[in-house]
Amino acid sequence: MTSGSALLALQRATHATLLVLASELADLGLTAAEINVLAILADGPGRTVSEICAESGSRPSTITSVLDRLERRGHITRGTRPADRRVVVVELTPSGRRAAGTITRTLTSVEARALDGLPGEAVAGFHTVLRALAEVSP
């Protein structure tokens, strides 16, 4: 890979973004993985562990430990679906909803600051590249 590599640029951008988010969300005392899971759950409906794994791009073992920590902190609950008791559904608690709201507002603010002034076509192209990279199979 060269210095002009999209993957290296994405890695640098991810690192810089995580540093900004860690700084702006420091009061929550959450890891990047915990922030990611709460952001996924922020829209309200519960998700299965499989859905969280798919949305986060993480392995079930990683997500399970993140969920354990979030549950201990009182941010989530895990339950079952009446139609299928084998399926674990993760939902936000009131404190989880407050934290997720803070995370969502911060993500929106950071993104707006980063993309301010860019043409819509550039942002759309960026999203196209991100989808393509996310779909690369191992």
TrEMBL record:
Protein's organism: Pseudonocardia adelaidensis
Pfam family, one: MarR_2
This protein's UniProt keywords: DNA-binding, Transcription, Transcription regulation
Domain HTH marR-type residues, every copy: 3-135
Entry-linked PANTHER family: HTH-TYPE TRANSCRIPTIONAL REPRESSOR YETL (PTHR33164:SF43), TRANSCRIPTIONAL REGULATOR, MARR FAMILY (PTHR33164)
UniProt-recorded name of the protein: HTH marR-type domain-containing protein
